[in-house]
Amino acid sequence: MSSLTVTALTKAFGATPVLTGVDLHVPAGGLVALLGPSGCGKTTLLRLVAGFDDPDSGTVVLGDRVVAGSGRGVPARRRGIGFVPQEGGLFPHLSVAGNVTFGLPRQRRRDRGRVRELLDLVGLDAALADRSPHQLSGGQQQRVALARALAPEPSLVLLDEPFSSLDATLREDTRQAVSAALIAAGATALLVTHDQAEALSMADQVAVLRGGRLVQLSDPRTLYQRPADLDVAAFVGESVVLAADVRDGRAESVLGSLAVTGPAGPGPARVLLRPEQLRLVAPVGPVPRGRVRSVDFYGHDSRVRLDLPGGGTVTARLEGADLPSVGQDVGIEVSGAAVAFPAAEGAAGIAGPAVVAGPAGAAATRRRAVEPIS
Ligand SMILES: Nc1ncnc2c1ncn2[C@@H]1O[C@H](COP(=O)(O)OP(=O)(O)OP(=O)(O)O)[C@@H](O)[C@H]1O
User: Fold this and answer.
1) If you read the UniProt record, what top EC class would you report for this enzyme, in one word (predicted)?
2) Does 77 share its domain with 123?
3) Among 44, 49, 196, 215, which residue has the most ligand 1 atoms within 8 Å of its CB, making it the best to mutate?
4) pTM, to two decimals
């Protein structure tokens, strides 16, 4: 397995720039997830690395071998890259064993031991070797596709939204099996996804692309706790964003005086909290208040939306069965620090309207200011 280094990669289709100066490094044996909204250039980047397309400028280096750029253009079939597409892409006329060994030299294709080894690696029973792809579940097909990609011991494995066609339960199981197989094989891997949970749970590093530019490359915890900006924050989880005034390392906000970290200096700011940082307490004394607008019960936790007296809505994620009722007045406490970002031009100062970002995904980038409670 080799490292992958992408430097200043740029690509346009016609006059439309799709990737602009992307730098990315995946260490040998590492897994980087490329995360971003639809149309941000994820698949294009993957295709340039695979050799299915050529960059306008910049380089792609596998280990110490330049495979694209600097006047080089190693054809896709000579790059030694394994590819797992969205929906298996298995050959329907070949058995599982035939699919798994397809990329191997002819004399190794009858090696049943190797087939068993590869099926075992991806957590499949060797008894499936003689089945046809249509006799497998979607999750099993994706595992066979990974076994096929790993069979020739490639220098790099590319996975293009490999779980998107699977239902939620199967997706989780298949994700875990694929993660375990990639680690066991010591594979270097680049995973394209628009699912933040998938990126955060599987990758060592997450690269966030927006409009063809890399906006952040961080380990999952840093990405979640210290996102580069509020759009990244909304893309990787639910956000509570408040107008605030930062002074002496604290932010004065509608939820009280908060400890802060982050890039904003003194003055007007927007501060980020995660819904799990909000706790509900009795509305007694000078504690900030809210009125319960809605409660969504998920079993493992619940989402409670709270209208604030001065305007705005915030969301709390609560564990346990002791939930408030809609319309109830509650006190709100914040645990941990908020991340402060410079206020957008013309943004309100202290105690301005809260801005609420929804769950990750397409909806996450939508923000709305809500009406004050009466
Ligand atoms: N061959 C092409 N010719 C012209 N435009 C293209 C071509 N391939 C991609 N694009 C455009 O480039 C942009 C990025 O596309 P790309 O498929 O890389 O995005 P993506 O992040 O993978 O999106 P999705 O998550 O929806 O698959 C899109 O606006 C797309 O329409």
Assistant:
1) translocase
2) yes
3) 44
4) 0.85
